[in-house]
Amino acid sequence: MENLFSIGELAHYQNISKQTLIFYDKIGLFRPAYVDPHNGYRYYSAQQIDYLDTILIMKRLGFSLKEIRAHMERYNIDSSLIALRRQADVLDRQIEELRLTRSRLLHRCAQMEAVKGCREQTPLPSLEEAEEQYLLLREVEAPYTPREISIATKRCFADSFREGLPLFFQCGVVVPLSRIREGRYTEASAAFVPVEKTARDGKVLRLPAGKCAALCHVGDYLSIGRSYQELLSFCAEHALEIVSDSYEFCINDYLTSHDENEYITKIVFYVQ
Question: Phi/psi class of residue 131: alpha, beta or left (left: φ > 0; alpha: ψ in -120 to 50)?
């Protein structure tokens, strides 16, 4: 039709799909200038192209379709300036969040790099100075099998995502010292995910900086008892008093390998 563009032509010029234009029409964001009553074909005027440009640019800037529709019902230089400055603040927050996410991702990579040698040689117990850290906890329900541990772990991740807590893409469990001494090595009392310092949730446990006895266990989780026996013997031989439950940090697990023989779990006791 003269001076009108078909939906296919407009989609081609703007490098978007016809389905996108149909969707914009359905939600009332960008309606065609004319719809053929006989076949339902949509046609757009030349004046509408600038309007569509504005929509696509605002979408590229991160505005939601709902925000764009509300803004374009009536907009001028003043309302546009307010909207653009507000969106700049939103982007600043997103940039900071991405920066923190990247930092935590690199932290996980550094942990994995640090223990890669454990796969080639038998890990030995050691003393180390642990830094202060924070754990978001979820209790593990009886009978404390891997099934209940897995459920508690999933709830930890769900809690952290829901509450916007800055996590380190890692998980672990707490195993009571009393159970370990009884040979119940896999009966964790709580699952956790490490998070950055926060005061927003009462389930976040602060682990203080301090001296720890540690050992990396390599292999499937059900074989972790041998590493506990070795670490307990190490503490006894060096007259180290264990003053905490065990904190197990998954360094290489189902998130990073499908092979359980490659799993690496760092066992940590606070000692004095």
Answer: beta
Pairing mode of beta strands 42-45, 204-207:
unpaired
Whole-angstrom CA distances from 213 to 13, 62, 68, 167, 191 are: 65, 48, 57, 24, 20
67: number of Cβ within 10 Å: 16
Residue 169 gets which letter from DSSP?
A: S
Q: What does the alpha-carbon distance between residue 173 and residue 139 come to, in Å, rounded to a whole number?
A: 10
Q: How far apart are alpha carbons 176 and 235 in whole angstroms?
A: 16
Per-residue pLDDT reduced to its tens digit, 35-87 = 999 999 999 998 898 899 999 999 999 999 999 999 998 899 999 999 999 99
What's the half-sphere exposure (Cβ side, CA atoms, 13 Å) at 60? 7
Q: E strands of the chain, at which residues?
A: 4-6, 34-35, 42-45, 126-130, 133-139, 172-175, 190-195, 204-207, 210-218, 246-252, 264-270
Q: How many CA atoms lie within 13 A of 104 on its CB side?
A: 17
Cα Rg of the chain, angstroms: 28
DSSP state of 29: S
Q: What is the pTM of this model?
A: 0.72
How many whole angstroms separate alpha carbon 116 and alpha carbon 252? Answer: 9
Rounded CA-CA distance 202/247 in Å is: 19
What is the total residue count of the chain?
Answer: 272
Residue 201 predicted with pLDDT over 60: no
Q: Give 100's contacts (C-beta < 8 A, 6+ positions apart).
A: 166, 196
Residues 94-127 have pLDDT tens digits of 999 898 889 888 888 888 887 776 666 778 999 9
Kindly report the number of other CB atoms within 10 A of residue 157's CB atom. Answer: 16
The SS3 call for residue 41 is: coil
